[in-house]
Amino acid sequence: MSDFHNDENERDRFRFRLGIAALVVLTAFGILIGRFAWLQFLQHDFYRTRADDNRIALIPIVPNRGVITDRNGVVLARNYSAFTLEITPSQTGNLEETIDALAEVVDIQAKDRKRFKRLLDDAKNFESVPIRTRLTDEEVARFTAQRYRFPGVEVKARLFRQYPLARVASHVTGYIGRITDRDLAWIEEEGRQANYKGTDHIGKNGLEQHYEFELHGETGYEEVEIDAGGRAVRSLKRIPPVSGNNLQLTLDTKLQEITEQAFGDRKGALVAIDPTTGGILALVSTPTYDPNLFVDGITPENWKELNEHPDKPMINRTINGAYPPGSTFKPFMALAALELGKRTPNQAISDPGYFNFGNHQFRDDKKGGHGSVDMYKSIVHSCDTYYYMLANDMGIDNISKFMGSLGLGKRTGVDLGKDDSGESKGVLPSQEWKKQRFKKPEQQKWYAGETISIGIGQGYNAYTPIQLAQATAAIASNGVLYRPHLVKYIENINTGERTPIEPQPLRSLPLKQANLDVIRQALVGVNKEGTGARAFAGAEYVSAGKTGTAQVYSLKGGKYEHGKVPERLRDHALFIAYAPAEQPTIALAVLVENGGFGAQSAAPIARQVRSEERRVGKECSQWCR
Description:
The protein is an alpha+beta fold. Helix content is 38%, strand content 20%. It has 23 helices and 23 strands.
């Protein structure tokens, strides 16, 4: 009986264990089936995408960069095709041995190896990396004959940027260079990182930088199937890139070149504007540089030469250099006096050759003075004493407010560089400016004596040449202030559609025409009988202008003798002008650094520019005007 019950217990125990085991097996199978269903149905798209990512690589195709031309179609920046020697790491054995062997066939220098290693770090295993660029026909032929020795090495055609005019208008075009971390941060900030996959270069300054996103185009892609070793097997799909847009400028390269030649080896700047549109006809900063040096990475030697050169060729003096305007400031002072009711055209002062204020004597440049001086004579013969008195009567804040309305002391918004970050504001002095400029309370106070020198364009005054050109153009256009701009059209290379950059009047100044006529008449007198007469003698047209000379350092009561002063301490020469006087087509500002007197150094350059502008204007068809 006992044995029977034991057998029953054993069978029950076995059945229980078998049931537990079956339940575990069924549960396990249920989990496997559920997991299988989850992977196959619910997560199908996700894992298929991951599998495709492992199987398919997207290779970016860099678009052609847009072309930059002047108003007559002369090319300032373009692309050209050249052969490069490229290595695909996944298809090559020992890289160092391969490069050493290649060096026996084509010229591969240390800089090429260094660049290759840098590019290799950023490249994928299946992408080709250039080891040599711009191969000669002879080098291509030599490599082709021995191609069988180098698996994974091939010759490809790539596009390179070129600036055909080299140094001419280099500060206008700017240049492209290799993308840096700083550039990447900007691209990400603008939300453009996806469009720059595979792109090595970007605009660094000038038009190349300001219109970067227009010129760059849209990156294309090629879907390539790869094997487990990362080697490309076949091409699956290709989305072609969209070329960048072209830029047509208001600039005239003939006028630009003549102007640069007129400066010779002197440092300086010139901005010539069409006063009816704000279009820039010439923008010159000397010395210039060759932007082609930067395209494929400038050498340390060339960079050191440019960066350490005492004349600073990399600085765009037209928008980055701020200078005292000297006597070119006087017409604006006279206009302010008329508008504010501080002077009348016929109101005259007696000039003894100096103006006493407190314990200081402000001297005129003409010993003994100019005698009786009204507003016309004060501009034509550049009487300092007249403007010492006028500045004292007007006060610094009245001066500052009026000059600010002409655009002085403010960025113009010209389309160069990255937004307006590359353009200097200059210095438009006022009581508020001085409080912000200095930290110590005793330095923050504005003293009445400081206003006196402001009246003749000295003191704290400092403006860029493009600001002076804009203000001069405002007088030429009877008070309409335009934004200076270089691009006339943005052209879609695929559709041919042109998007014009419309003239943008910033504002129409509420100036009385009678007051403008007084100033314009005096500016004509400068070039007829005043300080600009010699430079414009015999001209076939009537022009208006004003000479200026700005001190670089304080004379401390001493007498300035041009030939005895070290060159870098000599006065700057300035000249503002527009022509023809009745219906101006050009307004300009000229600066010759350390050039001495404006009448001798700056005004003759303006004469040359105007003569060339007339000549090219006659040759130019209506559309390019």
